[in-house]
Design goal:
It is built from 10 helices and 13 strands. By secondary structure, the protein is an alpha/beta fold. The strands form 4 sheets. It has a 5-stranded mixed β-sheet, with helices on both faces. Strand 4, helix 4 (95-103) and strand 5 (110-113) form a beta-alpha-beta unit. Residues 31, 35-36, 39-40, 117, 158-159, 162, 205, 234-235, 237-238, 241, 271-272, 299, 330 line the site of oxa(dethia)-CoA.
Length: 342
């Protein structure tokens, strides 16, 4: 008897056209192509025009249209929108509402989630549960970020600014009937999700203002002080990322009775090439099995995994029937992993 499960039926991505090379950053801050390449593996990132022409939901809508087209459904067939971002169009309402307006599908639920670099994995788990529960046939999930407008482009902010890029990646999560729901099944479906957070590190990667932990929501005297920009305890974040990402990937595999060798491709969150390499080393897999997009796009936070999936398909590295693991770590701290059969 077939079982109701969900699968990714469509995939899309969008990055703004402006490519910012490492060398270009040196006009604003004391940094170098050599430092950035050696410490992070990033060669370039895409940034949105620094004006009002592009918003986070504007990037998202293009990625979503691609995902809908690939899925072969119309926007009006979507039952729910989930929008993962740390760089919303506005403080409120949520970016999912802006996106819904742009897609022209009023009435359906529009949910923003805020799990930063782990946002896509959290979002995938929610989409999967709604579909598996029979509540929606199709859920549209997008991770989209315009970080460039929030970054401190002076030397003071160089530790963060060189890392981050803008972009969007979207998936349509659709109902599917699966005959064999075992972990070794070759049918395409989402197997499981494993989510974590530890708020005791909330201050180690944060963007405080605007927020109610300030005296007032958005104190004018903070601009241009440090709290008006994202801040990161980079070394600590690195240490936790290289521990938590392999750990949660193993948790996902163990929960399904699978081994590291069963995974065909890891499409993880992208923060630093050294994190990707340490991940491969910890699990004892060849670096070719850990898909990289960091050199081209930098860290696009909630968008890294769907962009990675789209790029992996384009590169011919992700094919039907493959077992894919997606691990993520980021601000919160939050971390998680999803396991899926492509
Ligand atoms: O998605 C989750 C979010 N983020 C992450 O996962 C990021 C995790 N952390 C990292 O990737 C790394 O810690 C960084 C790339 C942020 C930094 O690399 P690092 O090897 O840990 O460098 P560091 O912070 O120890 O800094 C080393 C030096 C410092 O100078 P001094 O104190 O040794 O003189 C920094 O001031 O490098 C300096 N530095 C830079 N120099 C040139 C920091 N950023 C830059 C820069 N260009 N952009």
């Amino acid at each position: 008897m077939p079982h109701l499960r969900s699968r990714i039926s469509g995939l899309g991505m969008c990055v703004p056209p402006w490519v910012v090379s490492n060398d270009e950053l040196t006009q604003w801050m004391d940094t170098s192509d050599e430092w950035i390449t050696q410490r992070t593996g990033i060669r370039q990132r895409h940034w949105a025009a620094q004006d009002t022409s592009t918003s986070t939901s504007g990037l998202a809508v293009d990625a979503c249209r691609d995902a809908l087209a690939q899925s072969g459904i119309a926007a009006t067939d979507v039952g729910m929108i989930i929008f993962a971002t740390l760089s919303p169009d506005a403080v409120f309402p949520g970016s999912a509402c802006f996106l819904q307006g742009k897609l022209g599908v009023p009435g359906i639920p529009a949910l923003d989630i805020r799990q930063q670099c782990t946002g896509f994995v959290y979002g995938l788990s929610i989409a999967d549960l709604y579909v598996r529960a029979g509540l929606h046939e199709h859920v549209l999930l997008v991770g989209s970020e315009i970080q460039s407008k929030a970054l401190d482009k002076s030397t003071r902010g160089r530790d963060m600014t060189v890392l981050f890029g803008d972009g969007a990646g979207a998936v349509v999560v659709s109902a599917t009937q699966v005959e064999d729901v075992s972990a070794r099944s070759k049918e395409s479906f989402l197997l499981s999700h494993h989510l974590h957070a530890d708020g005791s590190f909330a201050e180690d990667l944060l963007f405080r203002s605007p927020g109610t932990s300030n005296r007032i929501w958005n104190p004018p005297e903070l601009v241009p002080e440090r709290e008006a920009y994202p801040q990161m305890n980079g070394r600590l974040v690195f240490q936790h990322a290289v521990k938590r990402m392999p750990e949660v990937a193993l948790e996902a595999l163990e929960a399904n009775g699978l081994a590291v060798d069963d995974v065909d491709l890891f499409v993880n969150h992208q923060a630093n090439k050294r994190i990707n390499d340490k991940f491969a080393e910890s699990l004892g897999v060849s670096p070719e099995k850990v898909f990289d997009t960091i050199d081209l796009y930098g860290n696009t936070t909630a968008a890294t995994i769907p962009i990675g999936l789209a790029e992996a398909v384009k590169a011919g590295k992700l094919k039907p029937g493959m077992l894919v693991a997606c691990a993520a770590f980021g601000s919160g701290f939050t971390w998680g992993a999803s396991l899926l059969r492509w």
